[in-house]
Amino acid sequence: xxxxxxxxxxxxxxxxxxxxxxxxxxxxxxxxxxxxxxxxxxxxxxxxxxxxxxxxxxxxxxxxxxxxxxxxxxxxxxxxxxxxxxxxxxxxxxxxxxxxxxxxxxxxxxxxxxxxxxxxxxxxxxxxxxxxxxxxxxxxxxxxxxxxxxxxxxxxxxxxxxxxxxxxxxxxxxxxxxxxxxxxxxxxxxxxxxxxxxxxxxxxxxxxxxxxxxxxxxxxxxxxxxxxxxxxxxxxxxxxxxxxxxxxxxxxxxxxxxxxxxxxxxxxxxxxxxxxxxxxxxxxxxxxxxxxxxxxxxxxxxxxxxxxxxxxxxxxxxxxxxxxxxxxxxxxxxxxxxx
Length: 339
Hints:
- By secondary structure, the protein is an alpha/beta fold.
- Helices cover 40% and strands 12% of the residues.
- The chain is built from 12 helices and 10 strands.
- Strand 4, helix 2 and strand 5 form a beta-alpha-beta unit.
- The longest helix is centred in the C-terminal third of the chain and has 16 residues, at 261-276.
- It starts with a strand and ends with a helix.
- It comes from Arcobacter porcinus.
- One of its GO terms (molecular function) is oxidoreductase activity.
- It is an enzyme of class 1 (oxidoreductase).
- InterPro entries: AKR, AKR_Detox_Biosynth, NAD(P)_OxRdtase_dom_sf, NADP_OxRdtase_dom.
- This is General stress protein 69.
């Protein structure tokens, strides 16, 4: 098993992290325990959740995932697990989170309320990595960091991170932490995959220069790389088939970003490439996502236990230079920059 440190922290994590966002919606508690047990038995010590989960977020379901994960965590030694969770981003972000009556902000009040809720649901007295689910464009980053810093001082949180952030946002936060002597973001959790290699731009440069780790999510690009959207008939229950039927233009736009002519053509070539190298497209995708030096751990997901195995095979499958060049050619020919 390969373990890596997150940023400059003392968090030594497996190179694959078990994501949990379907637990409590498309994955019931019994199946979630099977998935978590399998991941743990295979050497995964890093688990990621959020107060908003499960997806798609609804007022009546938020927090269920943390509750399930908390129950499972009681079956294992607490200090054998690195647990990450997230405070919902501000209501001025990309959507209004259905928590705290949709009045969320990354300020002292909401950070304290959110962490107390997560600690209670996870049934633990500390969180290893506490992350901002997305930035607040109104509250200053200094105010946010001061509130996070208090949690670290109190011992409720060991380290902090950000998510869905930009090169400017990460740099601004990092410099504020330095100048004000506050706990800093040790990680950034952003989308990064075969179909979305944008992180290679300035964000990767910031991470390398400042020793901040990427925790990539959605290495399968929401399941697109599996090839199921390349079929003539798409199952009604898959994520983007559901999103495309949603009345919200925002939700439909998200689906169209992942499922379009360019991504489907690139996926077709990735399927051929995976076959050439004798692995599943899932293994190829996860191996690519965790390949780079700025990555600490790639976050995978599974709705059912049987979906987990191909992701775990990425522990042993390495991206060689020849394969990486072929991947980069596909990205250059079709995808990058993504539309």
